[in-house]
């Protein structure tokens, strides 16, 4: 298996600019904290989408986490509250709790909510950036990203890449075939995977390698900082909840993996592939049908994450959080 050359390397003169499209959610929250603590990473904006909990709740969570991270001045905007086509809101309180971020005490946000719609923020931020300098990192349902594409198709030519957490090439976690972010809005995912831009799918096959084991938990606890304690409180809820629902002894931090691929891509091995989203199957709706061999005669126009450098991943993640207050 030959890794595809990395899009960029961590560090360098120019910051890695990311726009985080999130539905916090414990793993989304950790991704925000890591992005805030990594030197050389600039968060261009944070947009929220209904997913792990309702839009109102995940937006409140995003503002609270940005406050913990010290992201004063960062744009945070609320986006779409329901899927593109069905309008059927699916949330995951069993995993993330009634608030979407049960466990830690959420501070009163010190950041204002941007009055613009999140989709407008995505379009305006991409169009204002120099082409090829901004990476979209969606870690929830893809409703905002698909809607932004429909509103301004030119964004597909301007972003450096879309690195998304979603899908999987061998498994699902809502059904045997489908992962939560894709299952909750497969039509939006179809739009995103069909657009003429570079998409890296960081799915369950990769994220199940990023387990917050007891020794990782202890690394956060030993920091003795506000941010470290916040992560410990998140894991104290997230771990047992994930064990009860999914049977994992230690919870995977799915969304952090997409962020890490975007900013330190050498930690995540990828392969070229083509990804289609199943929209009609009785048992497979939301499945990311992944062709890694070109068997369908399609261009292998996407990248599919396959292997994680686990030790370096956790060194990067814990080091970033340790830099926060």
TrEMBL record:
It comes from Georgenia daeguensis. Keywords: Glycosidase, Hydrolase. GO terms for molecular function: hydrolase activity. InterPro entries: Inosine/uridine_hydrolase_dom, IUNH, Ribo_hydro-like. Residues 18-315 form the Inosine/uridine-preferring nucleoside hydrolase domain. Gene3D superfamilies: Ribonucleoside hydrolase-like (3.90.245.10). It comes from the Bacteria. This is Nucleoside hydrolase. The keyword Hydrolase applies.
